[in-house]
Design brief:
The protein is built from 11 helices and 13 strands. With about 350 residues, it is α/β, with parallel strands linked by helices. The protein has a 7-stranded mixed sheet, with helices on both faces. A 6-stranded parallel sheet has the order 1-7-5-4-2-3. Helix 4 packs antiparallel against helix 5. The two termini are about 40 Å apart. The mean pLDDT is about 90.
Length: about 350
């Protein structure tokens, strides 16, 4: 795929979707609330409003505990497939592959093989840059969006008559914007529409639950291993953890880090999650992401302003992690000292 067509108008999106009978929905690995909400909303609309004959839903490595628990508390059942062992075959002439909230090719895991099928392919995402753009036919990626849930909410505004789905989409927005710390007029427009179906106060009460023990333990271990460096007026924190890397990075920023970097080795790769505070402006963020690309040569990367993920093509060993984190701290400190 050499180029893709960007779609801006909801009417054009609806026109595109009306040309198919089947759909394959695909989110990023370990789907969070934003990814799950977007996929379930798409599944509902395509099945109940467009009359699709078959809608398959794949989520690499399954659904996060938070997303799964919230969906079930709302009376929704994800019913996603987390591997490709299931016998799966749909005609390519009337099937569209819809990739939601993926961030980059590395986030699809083994499901990236679906891109080799001769489906028409649509990417719906809020991440500003993605290596998936060149691999799909159509892209819906509004620059002002801070979550995929808000894109979907506006896209299907008059079709989302299910209050539980509205609640899950609203939760997707709340989570991905850190309760509106990052937001745009589009974010509030979508939230207003969803709040009319599912109240904000009621949803906050559902979201205010004690974190699972494993996530709290990951945060504490990451803090224990952290390298803290001061560069000019900026505080840089680099650490490593086995899981919950995005949550750990976010928590480090809330503790005072201006730049939080969390390294997390997986089976055959290593994820490097980067989060920035409000002190990191757009130009500086661009320089930081370029530094990571130049120094790490990732196999894939993607994200949005002050939130980025880099994927390395191998899994770092426990012995390598401390020196690797020190390397990251050193080149970031040098870069920010010259900012």
């Amino acid at each position: 795929m050499s180029s893709s067509r960007r779609i801006k108008s909801p009417s054009h999106i609806r026109e595109l979707l009306s040309g198919f009978k089947n759909a394959v929905l695909l989110t990023h690995r370990y789907a969070d609330v934003d990814a799950l909400a977007s996929a379930l909303a798409f599944r509902y609309v395509l099945s109940n409003k467009y009359g699709y004959e078959h809608v398959s839903f794949f989520c690499p490595e399954g659904v996060s505990a938070q997303a799964l628990n919230l969906a079930r508390r709302l009376g929704l059942e994800p019913s996603c497939m987390d591997n490709l062992k299931t016998d799966f075959s749909l005609p390519t002439s009337n099937t569209i592959l819809i990739i939601l909230d993926a961030g980059g090719l590395g986030q699809l895991g083994v499901f990236k093989d679906l891109l080799n099928k001769e489906y028409k392919k649509l990417l719906v995402d809020h991440h500003r840059k993605s290596d998936l753009i060149r691999l799909v036919d159509y892209v819906v990626m509004p620059r002002q969006a801070y979550s995929t849930s808000e894109i979907v909410a506006i896209m299907f505004k008059d079709m989302l008559d299910n209050k539980e789905l509205a609640g899950l989409l609203f939760a997707g927005i709340i989570n991905d914007t850190s309760r509106f710390r990052r937001a745009s007029p589009m974010t509030f427009k979508a939230s207003y529409s969803l709040a009319r179906l599912f109240g904000y106060g009621k949803l906050l009460a559902m979201l205010t639950v004690e974190e699972e023990l494993s996530k709290r333990l990951a945060k504490l271990k990451a803090a224990q291993r952290a390298i803290v460096a001061k560069s000019g007026d900026y505080l840089i924190v680099v650490t490593h953890v086995g899981s919950f890397e995005s949550d750990v990075a976010t928590s480090l920023v809330s503790l005072g880090a201006d730049l939080a970097v969390v390294v997390s080795p997986k089976d055959n790769e290593t994820r490097v999650v980067v989060r920035g505070s409000g002190k990191i402006n757009n130009d500086m963020w661009g320089r930081i992401t370029e530094l990571f690309v130049r120094n790490l040569e990732p196999t894939s990367h993607g994200g949005h302003f002050r939130a980025w993920v880099f994927v390395l093509g191998r899994s770092l060993s426990k012995k390598e992690l401390p020196s690797f984190c020190k390397k990251l701290s050193d080149f970031l400190g040098s870069a920010l000292s010259n900012a």
